[in-house]
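quick one before i forget lol
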Amino acid sequence: MNYLHLFGFKWWPFEPSIDPGPRFESDAVLEAAGRLQHLIERRGVGLITGEAGSGKTTICRQVASRLNVRSFKVL
């Protein structure tokens, strides 16, 4: 069975190489991205927690994709 077709997906949603491009930005997503940006500006350390599938990895990848590669190394 092709789950892409069944659920109307355009790509496999849980691949490690998921594109960090535009996604639905709920209030929670915007808040998490804002908090990450604050940590980056302060050169702080943080921890993201949440339910499985809530978008933790995607948010981190979106924020990381906007960083200057000359100033930051994402691990």
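fyi The radius of gyration is 14 Å.
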